[in-house]
Fold this sequence. Notes:
The complex is a heterodimer of chains A (320) and B (129). Chain A has 320 residues and is an alpha+beta fold. Chain A has 3 domains: 7-136, Butyryl-CoA Dehydrogenase, subunit A, domain 3 (Up-down Bundle); 143-171 and 220-320, Roll (PH-domain like); 175-218. Chain A has helices at residues 11-26, 49-75, 87-105, 111-136, 147-159, 178-194, 200-219, 259-263, 306-319; strands at residues 37-38, 44-45, 165-173, 221-225, 229-234, 240-245, 249-253, 267-270, 280-283, 288-293, 298-302. Chain A has a 5-stranded mixed β-sheet, covered by helices on one side. Chain A is elongated and about 95 Å long. The model of chain A is unreliable at 139-143 (pLDDT under 50). In chain B, helix 1 (13-27) crosses helix 3 (50-62) and helix 2 (39-46) packs across helix 3 (50-62). Chain B is 55% helix and 7% strand. Chain B is mainly α and 129 residues long. Chain B is globular, with a radius of gyration of 17 Å. Chain B has 5 helices and 3 strands; from the N terminus they run E-H-H-H-E-E-H-H. In chain B, strand 2 and strand 3 form a beta hairpin. The interface between A and B is medium-sized, with 25 and 20 residues. Strand 3 of chain A pairs antiparallel with strand 1 of chain B.
Amino acid sequence: MNKPVTWTTHLPALALILVMLGVLWLGWPWPEPLADGFDAQGRPVHWKWAPAVPGAALTFWLVWFVFDGLWELFERNRKVFNPLSLLDEGLIAWMLVRVADFGVAHGMPPAIRVASWAAGGIALSAAVALELRRVTASSPEPDARTAEDATELANDLSALRAPGQRWSYWSVQKVPHRLLLGTLGAFFILGAVAIPDGPLLARLLLLAGGLLVLVVCSGGLHTVVTPRRLVVRAGHFGPPLLRIATSEIAEVAVPEFDPVRDFGGWGVRRGFMGDFAGVWAFNFAGSGVLVRTRRGKRYLIGTDHPERLAAALNAARSSA
Amino acid sequence: MLLHINDRDPRPIYLQLVAQAKELIHKGALRPGEELPSVRDVASALGINLHTAHRAYQVLRDEGVIVLRLGRRPRVSALREQPAGRHEVQQRLAGRLNELITEAFHLGLSERDFKSLVDERLRAGRGMR
């Protein structure tokens, strides 16, 4: 069921505009701008920033709020991607880029153009992601794989200790909101390519960030456990992030943790306080397995099914 | 997802993999739409030939169990909404059922014992749809 369009739908885009406006405001006072035109008496006319930008934003916001309301009325039950639904965010993104262009032409640092592409990209990415989610939304079956399955897996694995048996266990951690992140990554790359006169470092950072996001979103975090080794890899094509011989594993546990509180976020991180101080985390969501090696190093490996991965690691450890 | 190979199993390796993948789907450990490891990953992790892993995936694809697309990870197909046709059932099930009935005969089971064994196995697993 689609959520009805409410006025809060447009708040993120409005917030982006206000942030952009704040950035422009911080650059004040600018060099005297060139005249945008002349009135009937031949006096120069300048664009008044303060009323013009929020005025335009408010106008767009109101117009497209009405537009989205009408669109929702007609498209509610259609599962077809509607490019018109991106118009408001597209216009806002375009406006941000134009405002930044104007600012750069009047002496603002060129980096603001990169910021405008990134901010516009975020707004448009969010719109694409929301529309795709609306189109593809279904009611998936609840995931019945629980700790009971982990016990069954452990039993299966213990039966594989007999001679002549080879086994491998694959575990995946999907990236939440990967549609949103993927479109955002695509926009970062687009921004890096489309700003030929932007600062090189900012363009390289945008490009690297975009590629990294796409690689990670393409496949999440993949963990492979065999009786001999544990390998963790990001995305389908990413290089191995971690490779440990199972004979090196001393202990495996399924901890309770908060990615933000304990590691300051997601991705490849090192814990800095509490029980997870010094732990290297490879985690893109909210659950994982803690592995301690015989040398005392600790790693947190993200997975959607921690009990199952722990069972596989324990089996590998005991057979090593 | 757990895959294993028994070197003492008389079946070819690719058929062992096919049987396991089907069983994982039946047990619910693999769900429709879920990604499977690539052919290269399976071959590398289990220490088998690339062609053997590829053959297993081809058989699964031909039987409609998985979807293989160029450049994309293999995925579990959607479950059949309609039961297979009579010809396909004959081809894939009847022969194996005959073998089981013959084995049951040689084990001295009655028809009733055989049926109750089938019922028991259905109850122990996820059963049928």
